[in-house]
User: Which sequence fits this backbone?
């Protein structure tokens, strides 16, 4: 979603509708109360399902934006995903739109964007480590698509609770029962429909609130405020029958089936990530969206305790701690500062906070952390657990780094994945080798590419998960570091990180496989396998060596 909010730039905060509720930053609310009122979630979907549209509507409910001009932003996106130059142009916007905060009811909602393009799935994974829940958008005509499956796998790994929004019922789409079946069988998650569509396309009458036994009537047309819509009692009421005829009857039968299957909403199953409450609607018409936001507030978890390595850290502890999950180069290429996005895990950030950076042992003064509301950057006066703070830095902070108020905590859970595509880097102008090294190191720290240095010497090898990452690396090396490098095919199938407790065995392994070993940017030893067969043979031959397909990013 590279351009999600490009048009929002023109919407100043003073123009925007006022916040939905009072600000919670007043000093009288205790830390525990503030934390309990945080909801931090990511929107996930296959490209084109309606993530951007839904995000805009959610921001509108929070009073963060008005809607004018947002269509243009979506239109320009088409080109942005295939061309690094476009990506570069949009980079500033993607920085701004990656984290959004807005108030709703008496809560503070943190909404994290996930990159739409599958080639940046690693980035998405890291974002998902920073949230407490996910909102999955499904295109009702297309059902469960490839990217959704991958993203859901990530949610499942972390047992992240997922709310589902099935979008585009204003079109002729697939039958709701069929869609639920597909979610259950493909995504291996029980569905608990909360609303049910009455008709679709030209006959889309509205959604039936199963628990509340009332239909919210759909009126086609642009972006009406959903609080103005008509509520009709029951599917079998005279008015429902008069308005929706056979569609009301069909919906009634389907709802009976759903009820009969006993798939009512079960909060414990939702929180465990095994059941997803399902909502139907049309994001573009702002229909069914408020219900989703209400569910997020009512059901999604507030920030939870986290394993800090030596102990469990509670979110409302007074001492500050945070974990960096994303590094983004700044919008201004002249200044090599970067923004580290950190999720606050406990305590309170206030400007001037002195935080220990356990990895380096240094103390950093965080003077001006930022947050974003729509496109606008705001300096933060306060952040608590669940909030995301953007910290300017010049490379001190890396992905996975922890910041604390003195304690040597270690929050686990942000891995590098074994790359699937490899290239050798050849420098066209040998005089630029220092710049190449610096560029690759910094792009590596951003998590854009993995950089392997063969232990026996030779060309540096780059590894990525998605091919588009190479284009971005080449483009940024040229524009930011004035390095002209070519990337050539490398006969490498995959990488495995090597762990072995027995030093003698490890030394023997190194000697025997030196031509296939490299160190990654953190110095970790990596086996670069030329084929799956070679990996299998080597694994079998060296049983005392563990070949890991992920490496947790070093923290404390
Ligand atoms: P994404 O971020 O998940 O990639 O999707 P996005 O919101 O950009 O939506 C993809 C397309 O689907 C857009 O159309 C958008 O207008 C349309 N869309 C989103 N929600 C609905 C809905 O509820 N009903 C219908 N009928 N369409 C919906 P587009 O033609 O690509 O762009 P645009 O010309 O509308 O800007």
Assistant:
């Amino acid at each position: 979603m590279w351009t999600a909010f490009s048009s929002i730039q023109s919407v100043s905060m003073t123009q925007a509708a006022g916040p939905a509720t009072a600000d919670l930053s007043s000093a009288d609310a205790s830390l525990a109360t503030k934390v309990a009122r945080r909801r931090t979630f990511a929107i996930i979907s296959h490209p084109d399902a309606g993530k951007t549209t839904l995000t805009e509507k959610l921001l509108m409910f929070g009073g963060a934006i008005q809607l004018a001009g947002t269509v243009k932003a979506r239109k320009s996106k088409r080109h942005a995903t295939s061309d690094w130059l476009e990506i570069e142009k949009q980079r500033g916007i993607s920085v701004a739109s990656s984290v959004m905060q807005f108030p709703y009811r008496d809560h503070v909602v943190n909404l994290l964007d996930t990159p739409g393009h599958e080639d940046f799935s690693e980035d998405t994974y890291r974002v998902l480590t920073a949230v407490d829940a996910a909102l999955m958008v499904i295109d009702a005509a297309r059902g469960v698509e490839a990217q959704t499956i991958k993203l859901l796998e990530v949610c499942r790994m972390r047992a992240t609770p997922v709310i589902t929004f099935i979008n585009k019922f204003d079109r002729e789409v697939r039958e709701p029962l069929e869609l639920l079946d597909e979610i259950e069988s493909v995504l291996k998650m029980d569905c608990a429909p909360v609303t049910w569509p009455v008709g679709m396309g030209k006959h889309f009458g509205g959604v039936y609130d199963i628990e509340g036994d009332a239909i919210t009537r759909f009126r086609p047309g642009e972006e009406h405020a959903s609080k103005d819509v008509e509520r009709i009692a029951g599917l079998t009421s005279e008015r429902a029958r008069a308005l929706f005829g056979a569609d009301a009857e069909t919906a009634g039968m389907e709802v009976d089936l759903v009820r009969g299957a006993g798939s009512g909403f079960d909060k414990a199953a939702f929180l465990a990530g095994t059941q997803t409450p399902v909502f139907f609607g049309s994001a573009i018409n702002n229909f069914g969206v408020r219900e989703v936001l209400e569910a997020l507030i009512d059901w999604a978890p507030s920030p939870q305790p986290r394993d800090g390595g030596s102990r469990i850290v509670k979110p409302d502890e007074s001492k500050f701690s945070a974990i960096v999950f994303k590094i983004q180069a700044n919008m201004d290429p002249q200044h090599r500062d970067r923004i580290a996005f950190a999720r606050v895990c406990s305590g309170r950030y206030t400007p001037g906070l002195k935080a220990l950076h356990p990895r380096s042992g240094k103390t950093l003064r965080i003077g001006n952390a930022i947050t974003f509301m729509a496109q606008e950057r705001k300096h933060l006066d306060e952040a608590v657990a669940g909030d995301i703070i953007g910290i300017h830095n010049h490379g001190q902070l890396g992905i996975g780094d922890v910041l604390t108020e003195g304690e040597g905590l270690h929050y686990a859970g942000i891995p590098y994945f074994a790359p699937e595509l490899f290239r050798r880097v050849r420098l066209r102008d040998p005089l630029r080798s220092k710049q190449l090294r610096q560029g690759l190191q910094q792009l590596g720290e951003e998590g854009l590419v993995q950089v392997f240095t063969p232990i026996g010497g030779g060309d540096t090898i780059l590894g990525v998960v998605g091919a588009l990452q190479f284009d971005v690396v080449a483009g940024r090396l040229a524009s930011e570091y004035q390095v002209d490098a070519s990337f050539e095919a490398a006969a490498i199938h995959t990488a495995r990180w090597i762990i072995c407790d027995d030093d003698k065995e490890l030394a023997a392994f190194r000697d025997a496989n030196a031509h296939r070993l490299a160190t990654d940017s953190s110095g970790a030893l990596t086996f670069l396998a030329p084929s799956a067969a070679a990996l299998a043979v080597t694994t079998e031959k060296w049983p005392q060596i563990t070949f890991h397909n992920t490496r947790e990013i070093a923290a404390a």
Remarks:
- The chain has three domains: 40-98+114-302, 307-412, 415-553.
- Residues 1-28, 67-72, 74-85, 91-96 have pLDDT under 50 and may be disordered.
- The radius of gyration is 25 Å.
